[in-house]
Amino acid sequence: MSERPVYEALRSALLASEPVVLVTVVAAVPQIDSTLSRVDVDEAGPAGELPGVGAKLLVVPPPVGGGGVGGSPEAEPTVIGTIGDAELDRVLVRDALAALERGITVTRHYGPRGEARREDVSVFIESFTVPPTLVIFGAVDFTAALAAAGKLVGFRVVVCDARPVFATPRRFPAADEVVVDWPDRYLDRIASGLGPRDAICVLTHDTKFDVPAVLAALQTRAGYIGAMGSRRTHEERWKRLVEAGADEAALRARLLSPIGLDIGARTPEETAVAICAEIIAARAGVAGASLRDSRAGVAGASLRDSSGPIHRR
Amino acid sequence: MKEIIPDIDRWLASGEQVAVARVVGVEGSGPRDPGAAMAVSASGEVAGSVSGGCVEGAVVTEALEVLQSGQARLRTFGYSDDEAFAVGLTCGGTLHILIEPLDW
What we know:
The complex is a heterodimer of chains A (313) and B (104). In chain A, helix 4 packs across helix 9. With 313 residues, chain A is an alpha/beta fold. Chain A folds into 2 domains: 97 residues, no CATH class; 160 residues, NAD(P)-binding Rossmann-like Domain (Rossmann fold), CATH 3.40.50.720. In chain A, the strands form 2 sheets. In chain A, strands 8-7-6-9-10-11 form a 6-stranded parallel β-sheet, sandwiched between helices. Chain A is built from 10 helices and 11 strands. Chain A starts with a helix and ends in a 14-residue tail after the last helix. Chain A is 35% helix and 18% strand. By secondary structure, chain B is an alpha+beta fold. Helix content of chain B is 22%, strand content 31%. Classes of the chains: A alpha/beta (313), B alpha+beta (104). Chains A and B meet through helix 1, strand 1 and strand 5 of A and helix 1, strand 1 and strand 5 of B.
């Protein structure tokens, strides 16, 4: 048995970029239950022991997909450590897995046995999710810059192009993976693994490639879909997308084209910054303007919960 | 957390005790989100950060005390009437930081 079993398991999961969730008691103060009479309290005997501050457990979710040898749809998570009470542990494992699924880190409150609507035990549930994926179609100069910028803001970056001469790891050193394939075929293959945190950028600006790529992107759950090109390219592409059967409402709702925030970007590097800025803004649900001109502190109720590094309040 | 693992590993390998401080709550404007982590070795080396540099000094002091006592503690930094919270954040927010010995 390791001297630090929870840390060791957390460490290996983080280094392997595998999802894991750490649950830590941050406060434990017995609460008086006002719904009980004095007699009830006396009859219940002494209150159960509360866990100490720092008590923790780590939950490793079962591998997704299962299948194959040893895979089982009912696979159980691995739990390392204990908060001290079996029932509280059970509730915490359930809530920790739910938080991890949504990718959120949160403090929750429980009774000594995991009871809801009690505040005896405050627990910090910290989700460590796998990095989101940025898929870039088109092996062009803009792609190399966007791959590097995407890494900077925390994406796992995949570059995909159907032309083997251009789609090489040497040309895209920042990419985690370079795939030679047709964009729509590649997206069909990975679609089930893409979710709201993931982004797809179509930089081919050649309707032969980008119309099928955008159509396939719309079939995924990716949170951001952008396509590069001038206004004219954009209009031509829109026409072809509609001709190819794309739903115009879905296009308007999900396709960011021309791609990127309007910051006057010219070079591939500047354009990469404009695209990443748009991805971040889209994820945060904001329009993207100078903080100087933002009236959030005065009127914007929706920005109240913001706690990012750039202080918006 | 991931970014401070190499330093933690190095300290543990050389037999040093390590304390870990994590942001577990933010009220109002705050420089870092919950989960931001910092590690402090018994000899006072530091990895990572929990704010924009506002409270790190105080956290190091607390972390060294935590290594002495072996007891985890929750500390609050920010504007408050309480003198215990003397270290402020210029942004006006409040940070709750859990500081604990890495003995788990």
